[in-house]
Design a protein that fits this description.
3 helices, mainly alpha, flat
Amino acid sequence: MVHDTAVLLYAITAGFTCSGIVANLYRLLSRGDKDRFGRGVYLASMVIAGPNELLDRAGKAWREKSCSWVAFWLAAAVAAYWGLAIGLFAIELALAL
């Protein structure tokens, strides 16, 4: 059971790491393009960068007292689940290579 929990936490951490890397690369490389191509790149990057952005926005809203603790923890749970999915995919990809 401890091994399964460790793998779960490792996968979530790997997902958040991939999410953070993609989010920061998008922020560094985007020029604020508002055309169709820029919007498409934004949406494609948010598939991977989503957990990081969701948790960041939920944390800001909680600090500003514009959301309840239930909404914050719900957003955190969704971000963790999303990070788990990305992490499992990244681990499977790494094992296949």
